[in-house]
Amino acid sequence: MLPSRSIPMAPTQKTSHVPRLNARIISGFWRRLAAFLIDSLIVGMTGFLIGLLFFNKLAQLGQWGRVVGFVIAALYFSVLNSELGNGQTPGKRALGIEVVNKSGRHISLFRSFLRYSVLSIPFFLNNASLSLPLDSSLPVLIAGLLVFGLGGATIYLLVFNRRTRQGTHDLVAGTYVVRSSPKGIVNHGDVWRPHFAIIGAWCVAVMAAGPVIAIYTKDNQTFKNLIAIQKEIEATGKVHFASASEGKSWGYLGGKKWEVNYLQIRAILREPPEDYEKAAHEIAKIVLAQYPKIPEKRVISVVLSYGYDIGIASGWRNHIYSYRAGEWQKILHTTTL
Question: What predicted TM-score, i.e. pTM, was given to this entire model?
Answer without folding.
Answer: 0.84
